[in-house]
Amino acid sequence: MASTAYDAVIIGAGHNGLVCGAYLARKGMRVCLLERRHLIGGAAVSEAVWPGYRVSVASYTMALLQPRIIQELELARYGFEVIPPTPMVHFFGQGKTLVMGAHDQKLASDIARFHPDDAQAYAPYREHMTALGAAVREMLWEVPPDPASKAISERARLLRMALKYRNLGQSFYDIYDVLTLSARDFLARWFKSDEMITALGFYAGCGGANTSLCSPGSAYVLLRGYIRDHTTAAGPAGFVRGGMGSISEAIAASGRAHGMEVRCNASVDGVVLRDGCAAGVRLDTGETLSAKLVVSNVASKILFRKLLPSTAVPEDFLRRIGHIRDKSTAFKVNLAMKKLPTFKDFDPRSAGFDYPAQARFASSVAQMEQAYDASKYGKISARPALVMLTPSKLDPTVAPEGKHLVSIFGQHAPYDLDGRSWDEAREGLYATVLDTLAEHIPDIRECIDDAQVLSPVDLERIFNLPGGHVHHGELSMDQIFFRRPVQGAADYRTPVKNLYQCGASVHPGGGVTGVPGHNAAQVILRSRNTKRQDT
């Protein structure tokens, strides 16, 4: 087929690819996004899994999308609307719960039930983490330098960054602590009760990374809730009206308003090279699209091992790409509900709201460690840690009238099972999830109309996530900042000229932040302006 020429072709219309394309289109570039699936959004999608439902099949809540991006791309103008959620309720079992949304005297008295000192420690802990979050938030927008590079430009960039953050002071050591300590050890500096360490450290063991609360470096996850400023005009975190796909749809509409094109059912077979430079893409239909540059929103392993010939990059670079750690233990269960289930240990009068639309289930640090140990040896944990959201309680657009939608994100179901395939184990995982929930929600089974169960292997297959990893790889010291995705490629560029990356594989990693897409666009635009000045 005849080739079509663009300024930029972006592989993958996940939210980061859409963000990148929208920024480029706003600067007058002719941009085309190519999505292999029938709908845009990558893992931030709303799908009609059942008639009348809009299911956030993978990502499930808006917690990290950065206000700068929401405002600069005018997403509210294109239908983006956040619904503030009810507070998160943590269920420990045996009648113990913690309502975590309010930060007032009631919360302090609830915490004091576990240990009186913990009630006194909670406010200073939040102040400390808020300050650290503000410092780290600035680093999200950095283009990581290469400390090993001998190039003058890279050394100058490293120096500029050192000067910019020269006043971090004690915060430098505090940030170092969260990057190196386990969540348990970090939280133990503040809290004495196992309940508070479990509740506050929950996402270190159930946040999509293959870690536990006791894994060195897992304290970094504690910061993720503080790296978004929820007080700006962009609004708070919460449920997105219409599900997570509404984020992607709004970004796409913003880009289209400036001429951005998006094509679905357009699977890229390979990057076209000309004289060693990226010059377009080839679709599996045989069609080629020519472009001045190519931007990849797919995982680095897919880009360099499937879409490029092995000779396109140095052998040691390809070897490092192959070593990216991305085997996941995360899974997703979506439920179509005929009615709302009943939480036996939730008291609306005491909580101050009528229903826990956000709930978490983990009894102790020991239970989460045992669940992690099971997955570490190829077993599905008998009691996995779970997050359960009921967005339909606040957003009637995601379920038919009179029905409800439940979204469950869980951990501790390994990608590589010991002696079984996921086709054999999927039904057992579903039963385990229901058994775990039934301890807190006795009528859960009788409320279900239908279920969608997605193992790590399913997440890999549907969303093109190597290892089923929602972050394209672990967010650990060896795989963040100037080591993400690998050394020598952290600046959104690649060893192939005119080929860039903009997805979760690059800084600052996974989660629906939009930052990788934003940062890649800025690198591309600066490079384009430099070329213009040179000519």
Compact description:
The protein is α/β, with parallel strands linked by helices. The protein has 17 helices and 16 strands.
Could you characterize the architecture of this molecule?
By secondary structure, the protein is α/β, with parallel strands linked by helices. It folds into 3 domains: about 5-45 and about 65-80 and about 235-325 and about 465-535, FAD/NAD(P)-binding domain, CATH 3.50.50; about 105-225, no CATH class; about 330-465, no CATH class. Helix content is about 35%, strand content about 15%. Helix 1 (about 15-25) links the parallel strand 1 and strand 2 (about 30-35). Helix 1 (about 15-25) packs parallel to helix 10, helix 1 packs parallel to helix 17 and helix 3 crosses helix 4 (about 115-140). The two termini are about 35 Å apart.
Give a quick set of tags describing it.
535 residues; alpha/beta; FAD/NAD(P)-binding domain; 3 domains; seven-stranded mixed sheet
| Oligomeric status | single chain
Q: Which class do the helix and strand fractions yield?
A: alpha/beta
Structure annotation, total helices: 17
- Rg calc: 23 Å
Topology:
Elements: E1 4-11, H1 15-26, E2 31-34, H2 67-72, E3 82-83, E4 88-93, E5 96-99, H3 105-112, H4 116-140, H5 152-164, H6 170-180, H7 183-188, H8 194-200, H9 202-205, E6 239-240, H10 245-256, E7 261-263, E8 268-274, E9 277-283, E10 288-296, H11 300-306, H12 315-322, E11 331-337, H13 348-351, E12 358-361, H14 365-376, E13 386-389, E14 404-410, H15 422-438, E15 448-454, H16 456-463, E16 499-501, H17 515-534
Parallel strand pairs: 1-2, 1-10, 2-7, 4-12, 10-16
Antiparallel strand pairs: 3-6, 4-5, 8-9, 9-10, 11-14, 11-15, 12-13, 13-14
Helix pairs in contact: 1-10, 1-17, 3-4
